[in-house]
Write a structure and sequence with these properties.
Elements: E1 2-6, E2 19-23, H1 26-37, H2 45-56, H3 58-81, E3 87-89, E4 97-102, H4 109-121, E5 127-128, E6 138-142, H5 148-162
Antiparallel strand pairs: 1-2, 3-4, 4-6, 5-6
Length: about 160
């Protein structure tokens, strides 16, 4: 079994670009260690120092980040419910992002293009599903970075773009 983690989402520091693998198989761990030491990919000393400081406060940081993401999920959940069936979602239990889907019975291809054009006019970006190999009807919304009031402002802009 192999697991992968990073500081990006849960800790809220994607700029450090530091992650790690946990590997139970000693032979695979040795191969991965050799691959790391034989590659030119490495982190700067300052990044590793900052990562060490963050990880030493993991309990405190993860608790506050979890609370922020829970508030954001609740905000997005209420907002989805106010969209009169224009959006669908499977509420995530955790995580720094959620995906919503433009209702295909309401949004044809021209409507989807108009939605993204309207967002562009407002200088607002959501990650379209096509970036992740999904339908253009799918949008990914970040839950972990903006303060509560900015998330609500962003959702209001998306609501405006959803209107016929």
């Amino acid at each position: 079994m192999l697991t992968c983690a990073s500081l990006s989402k849960a800790y809220g520091v994607p700029g450090l670009r530091i992650g790690w693998l946990t590997v139970a198989d000693p032979r695979l761990r040795e191969q991965l260690t050799l691959a790391k030491f034989n590659s030119s990919v490495c982190c700067g000393v300052l990044d590793e120092f900052l990562a060490t400081r963050l990880l030493s406060r993991a309990d405190q940081l993860l608790g506050s980040r979890a609370a922020l993401m829970a508030r954001s999920r609740a905000t997005v959940g209420r907002w989805i419910g106010e969209q009169d069936g224009r959006l669908e979602w499977l509420r995530p239990d955790a995580g720094a992002f959620c995906c919503a889907r433009l209702n295909a019975d309401i949004f044809g291809p021209a409507d989807v293009r108009r939605f993204y054009d309207r967002l562009g006019e407002r200088r607002t970006v959501v990650a379209p599903g096509t970036w992740f190999g999904d339908s253009a009807h799918v949008i990914r919304i970040g839950l972990a970075y903006p303060p509560d009031d900015e998330l609500e402002k962003g959702l209001a802009i998306i609501s405006d773009a959803l209107r016929p």
